[in-house]
Amino acid sequence: MRFWGAGIALFALASCSNGIVPPSASGNQPPVRQPVAATPMTAAAAPAITAEITSARAASLLAGPAVASLPIDEVGAVRALSAFRTSCPSLVRRTDASGLTRGEDWQAACAAAPGATDARAFFAQHFEAVQVADGKAFATGYYEPEIAGSRTRRPGYKAAIYRKPDDLAEIDLGAFSDEFKGRKLRGRVSGNTFVPYYERAEIVNGALAGRGLELAWAADPVELFFLQVQGSGRLRLPDGGVMRIGYDNQNGRGYTGIGKLMKDRGLLGPGQTSMQGIMAWLRAHPEEGRAIMNENKSWVFFRELTGPGPLGSMGLPVVGRASVATDPKFVPLGAPVFLSMDREDATGLWVAHDVGGAIKGSNRFDTFWGAGEEARAIAGGMSARGTAWVLLPKGALARLTAEGAGGAAARP
């Protein structure tokens, strides 16, 4: 699983994803993109998700508006169609953890996608909008950062970027008991005991040093911290070249969003809870900043990317302004989603290509904005609320209703 998708605004205020990283260690921060307000479409009345509901199939499912009536702009539809085409080989063969679809459900749409020339008409012809639970959506944003880095250690580049260690082991608890199906632990073997893997502070202080695990070196540990939150990024090398790196694994320690810690402790004032504000505080208070970053015990290991990317959890390239991270238990990976939000830039058609450590539950989304200054500015302040509909192949809701899935019913 990729570590992307924890959500920048959520990171700042609640629990984690995606930090905004400046292109150099200078500390200069681009401004947060000021949103254009929009009025979300209204969701149908339905029960919210409760703790015992662990997948979309067990939630109430309501027919949404006709896809043709949704305010899908042509440019967004074209991007989403291109992203959907890349999803198809996986869609028709993978097991859908949400329980909403089967591989054969996608065959008609996937067969038609390569030859489709009218993107909006394609989605209207092959899909129906389905509201999961109360449909109340929350969206954050992430992007592909670029930071100063070097393939070798040299003056000014002291923060190690590690590849996955050989002694990092993963245990599938479901192999021992059905009670723990789907749950895994990461750690290492010490003597005859399986113990947690080194936490962030231990790694920063040299727990992995001298083992030849250094993939590259970052100029600034603050930038590296937030690149780990993103899960993927670009290193701008001293010679002007670029090295692209992506998520390879994680140490198994729980993620702690330092933005919430800082807000709760009164360290961030009004207007400082964006990613840019958090980074500015960390730079202004280096000693306290290091201690706060270490309170997030999670550490991400990377590998070099040489093909297209960055890659989402499906192993496919994520597409700026088209790909979104979701919880696969509530949205089929590869499925289109329409978001009607309280800000214009988040509203539109997206494709579920990724997952994230803090992207959990129904109607929780982390929108991907690509790379560059504009992507960083948009993702940095992304916090949108509104209504979401999952686009399922036509006929899927009728089948779910016949099977008695959740509270499947027709929208009044």
TrEMBL record:
Endpoints of the signal sequence: 1-19
Keyword Iron among record annotations: no
Single GO BP term: peptidoglycan catabolic process
Enzyme class: lyase
InterPro entries referenced in this protein's UniProt entry, alphabetically: 3D_dom, MltA, MltA_B, RlpA-like_sf
Top-rank lineage group of the source organism: Bacteria
Keywords of the record: Cell wall biogenesis/degradation, Lyase, Signal
EC number assigned by the record: 4.2.2.n1
Keyword match Nucleotide-binding: no
Occurrences of domain Lytic transglycosylase MltA (ranges): 146-303
Pfam families: 3D, MltA
GO CC terms in record: outer membrane
Reaction equations catalysed: Exolytic cleavage of the (1->4)-beta-glycosidic linkage between N-acetylmuramic acid (MurNAc) and N-acetylglucosamine (GlcNAc) residues in peptidoglycan, from either the reducing or the non-reducing ends of the peptidoglycan chains, with concomitant formation of a 1,6-anhydrobond in the MurNAc residue
Single Gene Ontology MF annotation: hydrolase activity, hydrolyzing O-glycosyl compounds
Name of the protein described by the UniProt record: peptidoglycan lytic exotransglycosylase
Source species taxonomy: Bacteria, Pseudomonadati, Pseudomonadota, Alphaproteobacteria, Sphingomonadales
